[in-house]
Design a protein that fits this description.
Helices cover about 30% and strands about 35% of the residues. With about 475 residues, it is of the alpha+beta class. Among the domains are: about 110 residues, no CATH class; about 100 residues, Sandwich (Immunoglobulin-like), CATH 2.60.40; about 110 residues, no CATH class. Strands 1, 2, 3, 4, 5 and 6 form a six-stranded antiparallel beta sheet that branches. Strands 21-20-23-27-26 form a five-stranded antiparallel beta sheet. Strands 7-8-9-10 form a four-stranded antiparallel beta sheet, with no helix packed on it. A hairpin with a 5-residue loop joins strand 17 and strand 18. It is elongated, with a radius of gyration of 72 Å.
């Protein structure tokens, strides 16, 4: 509740309360009562009506338009006082439940001086007498109760003292018995300990003997186990060897009497009408490839694969690898043909024998290797070659893989002789077989020359070896040339 001014009635002064009292909360109403040194029977604060209850302390709040029970000489009547539209009404008829606006002649508007002092004093006197009577009765009851309580306490003390004496006697008796029991147990424990010590000594000696026996038995058992293990191992070895020998003999006898049928593994052959030799670096060729599968004792032919340098290029035969340019690095062709499991053949006595039967697998063919080589040129000439065209126009040529020894025939017309070697080849010697095998190597003087390969690519690392003399030979000589 906020701070408000109140109006009310005080029985001591028989006057209404004036506006100087400020109420800030419900508790302040009780403070107001004692502050004014009298009994404020009712007060009005804003639109709320507060009436002092029958305990003369608690205030009851009556909302606007509602009735309240008024404490009068120990009886309760409904709607004796009511706050209605900001005014306080007092009923002229007890237990009237009708509000002022519906039965106005039965209600009287009251103010502070409308309630007589006699009525107030009567109310106060009744309340005080009732309170004093209640207090006297309470005091008498408490005195009588205290006397009875003291009597009960004294009786309880006497009973407990007797019980305590009995308990003490029992405690003393038990203490003596416990002391005797402790002595007896101490003596018994000493005897028991002596017996335990003697038993421990006896058992220790027995355990020592037992351990010795156990150790001896363990040694004997270990030796026996070793001997038996060795014997079993020897027997197993002998039996295995015997079984192997017997099996060998049986196999030999069986093979001698009834040999297993012979199973021939399938084969594959890769062939081509293009020769693998006589190919110059830079030369372009077409390589027809044909795969021939020989089933033999295998199953039916399966998938086929033709590979070039390990990479598959065809899955059927025949196949032509077109426009292949020869190089110093060989191009390798190989075929692989899969086949199913072969049938079981009969042995010589007509019994099916699967020993050696061809399982499903595949077979690789032979390889075809195509590699280009540089050409070697040599001849007797009227003028030494100076370029690729004149070099390649020489009458005699051979591939660099055709061997390291060959012969240049001089004839009886020319006085100049030359040898043109590709990169990687050098002149070792030239022997004139028709001049008592004269070594004329030093007469072949080396110099560089560029010669094109078969594709017209310039190879700048060719070497020309040239020999010149003043007159022709009268008879043709054989210059035996060795290169490396």
């Amino acid at each position: 509740m906020s701070a408000v001014t109140v109006a009310g009635f005080d029985n001591r002064s028989n006057e209404p309360l004036d506006a100087k009292y400020i109420v800030t909360d419900l508790a302040a109403l009780s403070t107001l009562r004692f502050y004014h040194q009298g009994m404020v029977r009712w007060v009005q604060a804003e639109n709320w009506f507060y009436v002092l209850s029958n305990d003369l302390i608690t205030w009851k709040q009556l909302p606007k338009g509602k009735g309240v029970q008024k404490w009068v000489a120990g009886s309760y009547n409904e709607f004796d006082l009511v706050l209605y539209n900001g005014k306080i009404y007092e009923s002229q008829i007890n237990n009237n439940n009708v509000l002022p606006d519906t039965d106005a002649d039965k209600w009287v508007i009251i103010t502070g001086d409308a309630i007589t002092i006699d009525e107030v004093n009567s109310v106060v006197a009744d309340a005080v007498n009732n309170l004093l009577t209640a207090l006297a009765n309470e005091a008498t009851n408490r005195v009588n109760g205290d006397a009875a309580l003291q009597s009960n306490i004294n009786a309880e003390v006497t009973t407990r003292s007797a019980a305590d004496a009995t308990l003490q006697a029992n405690i003393d008796s038990n203490t003596t018995a416990i002391a005797t029991e402790a002595t007896n147990r101490a003596n018994g424990d000493a005897t028991l300990q002596t017996n335990i010590n003697a038993e421990a000594t006896t058992r220790l000696a027995a355990d020592t003997v037992l351990q010795t026996n156990i150790d001896n038995n363990a040694t004997a058992i270990a030796s026996e186990v070793t001997n038996r293990t060795n014997a079993i191992a020897d027997e197993a070895t002998n039996r295995v060897n015997g079984d192997a020998a017997l099996q060998t003999q049986l196999s030999a006898l069986s093979s001698a009497l009834i040999p297993h049928p012979t199973y021939t593994t399938p084969t594959a052959v890769l062939s081509s009408t293009q020769s693998t030799s006589g190919l110059e670096v830079g030369q372009t060729v077409n390589i027809p490839l044909t795969v021939a599968f020989n089933q033999n004792d295998g199953g039916a032919q399966g998938a086929m694969s033709v590979k070039k340098d390990g990479t598959q290029i065809a899955t059927a035969s025949p196949y032509t690898d077109s426009a292949v340019v020869m190089a110093l690095t060989a191009k390798v062709y190989q075929a692989n043909v899969a086949y199913a499991q072969g049938p079981i053949k009969n042995n010589i006595i007509g019994v099916p024998d699967a020993t050696g039967r061809i399982a499903a697998s595949s077979v690789n063919s032979n390889s075809l290797s195509y590699q280009g080589y540089y050409k070697i040129f040599y001849d007797a000439v009227a003028a030494f070659p100076t370029n690729s065209a004149t070099a390649r126009a020489l009458t005699n040529s051979r591939f660099s893989n055709s061997g390291n020894t060959f012969t240049l025939n001089t004839g009886t017309v020319q006085t100049k002789f030359c040898l043109i070697l590709p990169p990687g080849k050098t002149l070792v010697s030239v022997i004139d077989q028709d001049a008592l095998n004269l070594d004329i190597t030093s007469q072949y003087v080396a110099s560089s020359i560029t010669v094109n390969d078969a594709a017209g690519n310039s190879v700048t690392t060719y070497t020309i070896y040239a020999m010149s003399q003043s007159i022709p030979y009268t008879a043709s000589h054989r210059h035996n040339i060795t290169i490396a």
